[in-house]
Design brief:
Layout (H helix, E strand, L loop, with lengths): L15 E2 L2 E2 L20 E3 L5 E6 L4 E6 L5 E6 L5 E5 L3 E5 L3 E6 L2 E6 L2 E6 L3 E7 L3 E7 L2 E6 L4 E6 H5 L6 E5 L7 E4 L2 E6 L9 E5 L5 E4 L10 E3 L3 E5 L3 E6 L5 E6 L11 E2 L5 E6 L2 E6 L5 E5 L4 E6 L5 E6 L3 E6 L5 E6 L11 E4 L2 E6 L4 E6 L5 E7 L4 E7 L2
Antiparallel strand pairs: 1-2, 3-11, 4-5, 4-37, 5-6, 7-8, 8-9, 9-12, 10-11, 13-14, 14-15, 15-16, 17-18, 18-19, 19-20, 21-22, 22-23, 23-24, 25-26, 26-27, 27-28, 29-30, 30-31, 31-32, 33-34, 34-35, 35-36
Length: 397
């Protein structure tokens, strides 16, 4: 494992893509391909997604090939129970004192009217050290890790990796608190006003080096939960959702919740589109981040985890009664209900989406269930583990 940041080359290959500038590599491209393959990779006929699973207790990370169901790699970290997916390609696994960057080795690049898919061996890329890394936020071809214990923000520039250059870590300081730093349009929006006991309630704008530009004239009490888009982001507050729009000089808009007192604490979003979903005590809230319009998918009991389909048409929820439910994102109408959880413990289940399948972890039963949500919520497969899957991710779909 390399220290602080020394990351291997990552990213795409030649020419310009929707994800930004990239460089040519010396991997194995398919015959006649119009895109080179990065070093060590092989271009394949179509997406070959991989499931990444983190142990709730040990810090173990496993990477599974979803086609063969075989384990491709297993990483043993001192701590790493939470996984954040970056650009559908990388994962960052965090614990109390470290953030581990892993390339599970499968990704797909949109290239105009077609796409290119690649695989390579999974690899542990590097480690960021610090006290209480919590929110890991990607945007603007960067990923920012906020260390709550020190208020330090470490930023990894993935454009540098895609160009084959040495990795760049930009570091700047805020006040210690359970905070966020959002990379957005060559700036960072950073939370303020939080304490060790209380959540932040304000935001400030910083430049690309982390230097203060100005405070944003807005209050967001009990700030927690964010979703980042190309030139704006959302953050959940006690009384509503705040939108910060970089295209409008980082202007702010607050949309009240449709039901007062029923707030969002976290957001899930599709790879494309503008919808976000949030679990609540009585179902799922769905917000169109362009218009500010809400849709409620109401249920009789609590939603433990939520998700959004790749096309943004379907919303998912794992309920406290152990069912996986699907809803029409436009109307909130329930479409299907499938039993998925065999037991309960202190680690809540998670939902991730890979292509046309959803994956639900059951930490108590030590399983991950694959669901074909387009086929009435049909259970397609169940993966068994010898540990509790606390956090999961799918890459390369």
């Amino acid at each position: 494992m390399v220290g602080v940041i020394a990351l291997v080359v990552a990213g795409c290959s030649s020419a310009e893509t929707a994800d930004g500038p990239v460089v040519e590599g010396s991997g194995t491209a398919r015959p006649g391909s119009d895109l080179a393959a990065e070093d060590g990779s092989t271009e394949v006929e179509g997406p070959e997604p991989r499931l990444v699973v983190a142990d709730a207790d040990s810090g173990r990370i496993e990477v599974l090939d979803l086609a063969t169901e075989g384990t491709l790699a297993s990483f043993e970290f001192d701590e790493a129970s939470r996984i954040t997916t970056i650009n559908g390609r990388y994962v960052i696994a965090t614990g109390a004192h470290q953030a581990h960057v892993v390339d599970p080795g499968s990704w797909t690049i949109d290239h105009g009217d077609h796409s290119h898919s690649y695989v390579k061996d999974p690899v542990a890329i590097g480690t960021l050290d610090g006290d209480e890394p919590a929110h890991v936020i990607a945007g603007d071809r960067k990923v920012a890790v906020f260390f709550d214990g020190t208020g330090t923000v470490d930023v990894v520039d993935f454009d540098s990796l895609s160009k084959g250059e040495s990795a760049i870590a930009t570091t700047f300081d805020a006040d210690p608190h359970h905070g966020i730093a959002v990379p957005l349009s060559d700036h960072f929006v950073v939370s303020t006003g939080g304490t060790e006991e209380g959540l932040p309630d304000g935001l400030e704008l910083r430049d690309g080096a982390g230097e203060l530009v100005r405070a944003l004239d807005v209050q967001c009490p009990e700030m927690h939960g964010e979703a980042v888009f190309s030139n704006y982001f959302l953050v959940a507050c006690r009384d509503g959702v705040l939108k910060v729009d970089a295209a409008q000089n980082f202007s702010t808009t607050i949309w009240p919740y449709p039901t007062p007192g029923k707030r969002a604490w976290a957001f899930e979003q599709a790879p494309k589109g503008a919808l976000v979903a949030s679990s609540t005590e009585r179902g799922v809230l769905v917000l169109d981040s362009r218009s500010g319009e809400w849709v409620r998918a109401n249920t009789a009991d609590e939603s433990l985890a939520s998700g959004v389909s790749r096309d943004g048409k379907t919303v998912f929820s794992v309920q406290a009664d152990g069912t996986f439910r699907t809803f029409d994102a436009a109307t909130g109408a329930e479409l299907s209900s499938t039993p998925v959880l065999d037991g309960r413990n202190d680690v809540v289940p998670a939902i991730v989406v890979g292509g046309t399948r959803a994956y639900v972890s059951d930490p108590a039963a030590k399983t991950v269930t694959e669901i074909d949500y387009r086929d009435g919520g049909r259970v397609a497969r169940t993966f068994d583990f010898d540990f509790s899957p606390a956090s999961i991710a799918v890459v390369g779909a």
